[in-house]
Amino acid sequence: MTFSTLGLSETLLHTLDEIGYSTPTPIQVKAIPAVLSGRDIMAAAQTGTGKTASFALPLLQQLANGNRVKSNHIRALILTPTRELAVQVAESVATYGKHLPFKSSVVYGGVKINPQMMKLRGGIDVLVATPGRLLDLFSQNAVKFSQVEVLVLDEADRMLDMGFSDEIGKILTLLPKKRQNLLFSATFSDDIRKLTNGLLKSPVKIEVSRRNSAAKSVKQWVYEVDKSKKSALLSHLIRSKNWSQVLVFTRTKKGADQLVRHLKSENISTVAIHGDKSQGLRTRALADFKANKTRILVATDIAARGLDISELPHVINFDLPKVPGDYIHRIGRTGRAGLQGEGISLVSADEVKLLTAIETLIRQTLVREVETGFIPNHKVPLTRQTRVRPKKPKKPKQVQARGEKRRR
Description:
CATH class of the largest domain: Alpha Beta
Mean pLDDT: 85
Largest sheet: 7 strands, parallel
Number of domains: 2
Radius of gyration: 27 Å
Oligomer: single chain
């Protein structure tokens, strides 16, 4: 099957040919015709399966023949949970629609709001946004929703996991009741199904892979290791296996920074990306990692859904996630588009219950590996000789006889 059989316009087909897209993925085959028909969509697909194109391409085609957007208005709204994912989706939308007469933009927190307000003044056809910043813009009368024709919730389960339920609910009350709704998610939780009951109208349900499963192209295994030896084991694996591009996930921001300091002390180029970093630093860190200027990228789960790195070979769970579903999203950064990848977890004794929960979710027992060449208590060679002076023996105390005078 080719894209030409899915009902896309000649302009979009020409663009896809330019960027090297020849064969649609399973999610694109099912979703594109359904979106073009105007139906609401409830779709589940593994990350890295072409999900963004499955809603962006038909969305752009629909907007190409619509009404002109008014000042401060938008015609299509795409909500994402993180800044990184918002930027990634916005870049894809701009690429797919480069030969179409429309305007797109992206808004998110962590940066100055005034430049985003200025862009919205002329009206935007497709706006990609994080929920919090979108509501900030609305409160300042910088964005209006009366022209919204299509709403896309991308990674909806993650938005709920991150506590955006109230924000999403408020945004939904501000949108026109007559609109097309597209919900895309890697997993379907009970909260997601509850949300869809009041949001979607007779939706087309699409599920192209087994629920809560990892891509078959990702080889997964576990190293059981003492918690205090994780950093040393990771350094050993990177060196001994000559890994050149590794995405490492930690549970906390503090843990990410500590791991960066350790790896740098081992002369392994490393950078961290998490919520305490400014957007400029996060963007620069990701760009350097993609360009192979940095060998290791350490991230927290806030970035797990927004990192799009082509041909990423290795993902390491330095800490197992507390939410089992996040394991799928983490290792979904590798093995994308049918390429082979490796998902490795370093598991300590206090994480056994978390590992059991993950294996229950994915219905798979992960292989336990032993790194025979790893000596956790190895000593670092001295860079210079140090002279140790022997301690002088203490003189025994003299017992003073009774009645004897102390000499001065």
